[in-house]
Amino acid sequence: MRSLVYSTSRTSIIRMTKTNYIMPQDSLLYKALNVSIDLDHNGQNSWFSSVRHLCTILNLPADFVKLRKCKFTQLLNSSLRKSYLKLWEKNFKTVMEGKLRTYCKIKTSFGSEKYLHIINNFTLRRALAKLRIFTHRLKTETGRYLKLEVSKRLCNKCDLNKIEDEIHFLLECPSTSTDRQVLIDMINNNCNNFQYLNLSDNFFYHT
What we know:
By secondary structure, this protein is mainly α. Helices cover about 60% and strands about 0% of the residues. The protein has two domains: about 90 residues, no CATH class; about 100 residues, no CATH class.
């Protein structure tokens, strides 16, 4: 969230600088900006020095103020997207072993997931989203609130003595066998090789 606010602030600064540059030449803002530009060109630290530094970070040309509006907007949007993708990939690596470890294995690229547009039923769509991002009520998550060791977060809906995680809930637990079989039959009709997948790949196919 903090990174998003910071990115928005940088964008606002650059956009404001661009706006000031195309104002009437007798306006105070236009004159002030040009004074700042001249100071920067003469090696003195000024407002435009900070703006130029932001341009370097975002890989924008230093003379961006002279670009046509459509070209400027295109470059800025492209640069912001690339910058955010790098941040997203970096942050992704830091949660690989944390609460979102399952989500990190499912989510392979930045963008909107297909199921968000395919599943029209809000309740079903929300249930799948919760399963994917680890905000469900399975013991592997609720046990965390009670500070239970992972090995003790066992399923209380069956006698398999296994940790109630996403894979157990979706593919192993006898308590969900009826609904699971209906889902598997539907998948088998569309994927001939589904029966040959191992447990882990089977889970990722489901989600």
